């Protein structure tokens, strides 16, 4: 059937195979979400024993595959009655700590939590970080966290007016001292004034130990061909932020609203802003792996569809070394998130729908030298989603228990047409 889960993919090129692995039961859904916020903004991390999912203002932890109870993020982040949303989660394999954040519109800043041990079910340090010069009158939207050996980065878009109702002020970044945050100490941090020349500067998660240059990446928006990168070197208050010369990729444009069966309401597939960034040492080079939404015409198709752009740069000798769209004939692919596994394969999860396919969670992979393999289905949608909103962003996390494998999390249609449901499924990769 058109909506059936694929069992496996074993293409001739790239020279790897991957299969649908374990699906975690009781992934977060709308009824867990007491605020009624929609759509589900996705965050996930894994330490090999635990998987932590955060969506909007609710979280859940699985221990050895067993789900814990859903918990609300306002008390977790000590947010009181403040308006919080857009969480992110990272497990840092180098330090063995968990890092999570969520924007606080009421505060005009971000709340960042760091686990006090390697156990995410234990105690966390929590910091309320107000954007300098803002007192409840600004809105840092879609904050994304990143981390390297000695710093934690935050990238966000700043809007004027409480509730994100005012003009776009620009993208901004903040850099924090990692060691001080891990110890629960007070600290100084560095920041940039919002710059309207940037939109969604996303910090990278470093997968290689000892990396002390933290990268931020963005793009020029719909119709552009530029790739923007910034670096932070040093520990606040002595970090140096540097804008790198832009690189060029094939033109990208905002995705289309995606059709779904049984309704004229289409899914909002977002725009072409940067979604997800990973940095890793591959051979002797530092590479960045990035994803964002795009529109393209799939091979053999007669019309443009939603496509998912995946790009890799070599930052040691700055150049684009891989930039391809995941594109499926007569189907819409959106909200990509990607990471490397230990074999340096690129594993990508994304959403998919069409006039005959209910919104579902998909995955594909590449060895980085060839096109992507045929996608496989990870989780089916049980119904079309008639809210018109969908995702905003999906998430991936390498599995430290098997570093060739990757956990994927995203929205799927259902359980009823005007609610949301998520799925968490492991992608097992054989080099």
What characteristics describe this protein?
431 residues, mainly beta, five-stranded antiparallel beta sheet, disordered N terminus
Mean pLDDT across every amino acid position: 92
- Gap between N and C termini: 29 Å
Poorly predicted ranges? 1-14
Strand content: over 45%
Sheet having the most strands? 5 strands, antiparallel
Shape: globular
Specify the number of helices: 2
- What is the gyration radius calculated from CA atoms? 20 Å
Order of strands across the main sheet: 1-2-32-31-30
How many beta-strand runs?
32
Structural class, judged by helices and strands? mainly beta
- What share of the residues lie within helices? under 10%
Can you describe what's shown?
The protein has 431 residues and is mostly beta strands. Helix content is 2%, strand content 50%. The protein is built from two helices and 32 strands. It has helices at 73-76, 178-183, and strands spanning 8-9, 17-23, 42-46, 50-55, 58-63, 66-67, 71-72, 84-92, 97-104, 109-115, 124-130, 138-147, 151-160, 168-177, 190-191, 202-203, 205-206, 213-219, 224-233, 240-243, 247-252, 274-282, 285-296, 305-314, 319-326, 332-340, 346-353, 360-366, 376-379, 395-398, 406-413, 420-430. The strands form seven sheets. Strands 1-2-32-31-30 form a five-stranded antiparallel beta sheet, with no helix packed on it. Strands 3, 4, 5, 6 and 7 form a five-stranded antiparallel beta sheet that branches. Strands 16, 18, 19, 20 and 21 form a five-stranded antiparallel beta sheet that branches. Strand 10 and strand 11 (124-130) form a beta hairpin. The longest helix is centred in the middle third of the chain and has 6 residues, at 178-183. The model is unreliable at 1-14 (pLDDT under 50).
């Amino acid at each position: 059937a058109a909506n059936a889960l694929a069992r496996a993919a074993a293409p001739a090129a790239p020279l790897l195979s991957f299969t649908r692995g374990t699906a975690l039961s009781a992934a977060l859904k709308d009824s867990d979400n007491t605020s009624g916020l929609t759509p589900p903004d996705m965050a996930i991390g894994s330490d090999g024993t635990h998987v932590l999912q955060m969506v909007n203002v609710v979280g859940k932890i699985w221990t050895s595959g067993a789900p814990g109870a859903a918990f609300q993020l306002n008390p977790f982040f000590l947010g009181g009655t403040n308006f919080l949303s857009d969480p992110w989660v990272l497990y840092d394999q180098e330090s063995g700590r968990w890092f999570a954040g969520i924007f606080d519109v009421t505060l005009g800043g971000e709340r960042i939590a760091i686990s006090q041990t390697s156990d995410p079910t234990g105690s966390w340090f929590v910091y309320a970080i107000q954007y300098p010069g803002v007192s409840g009158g600004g809105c840092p939207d879609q904050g994304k966290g990143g981390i390297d050996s000695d710093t934690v980065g935050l990238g966000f878009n700043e809007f004027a007016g409480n509730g994100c109702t005012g003009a776009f002020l620009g993208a901004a970044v903040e850099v924090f001292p990692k060691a001080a945050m891990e110890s629960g100490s007070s600290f100084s941090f560095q920041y940039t004034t919002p710059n309207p020349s940037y939109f969604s500067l996303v910090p990278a998660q470093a997968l290689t130990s000892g990396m002390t240059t933290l990268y931020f990446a963005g793009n020029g928006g719909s119709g552009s061909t530029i790739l923007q990168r910034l670096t932070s070197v040093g520990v606040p208050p002595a970090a140096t932020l540097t804008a790198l010369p832009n690189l060029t990729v094939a033109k990208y444009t905002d995705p289309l609203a995606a059709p779904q069966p049984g309704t004229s309401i289409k899914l909002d597939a977002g725009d072409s802003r940067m979604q997800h960034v990973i940095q890793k040492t591959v051979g002797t080079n530092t590479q960045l792996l990035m994803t964002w939404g795009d529109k393209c015409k799939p091979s053999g198709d007669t019309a443009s569809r939603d496509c998912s752009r995946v790009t890799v740069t070599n930052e040691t000798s700055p150049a684009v070394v891989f930039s391809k769209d995941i594109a499926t004939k007569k189907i819409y692919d959106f909200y990509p998130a990607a990471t490397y596994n230990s074999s340096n394969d690129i594993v990508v999860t994304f959403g998919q729908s069409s006039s005959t396919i209910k919104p579902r969670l998909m995955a594909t992979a590449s060895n980085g030298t060839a096109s992507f393999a045929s996608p496989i289905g990870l989780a089916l949608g049980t119904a079309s989603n008639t809210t018109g909103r969908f995702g905003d962003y999906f998430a991936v996390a390498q599995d430290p228990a098997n570093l060739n494998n990757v956990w994927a999390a995203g929205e799927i249609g259902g359980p009823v047409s005007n609610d949301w449901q998520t799925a968490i499924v492991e992608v097992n990769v054989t080099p």
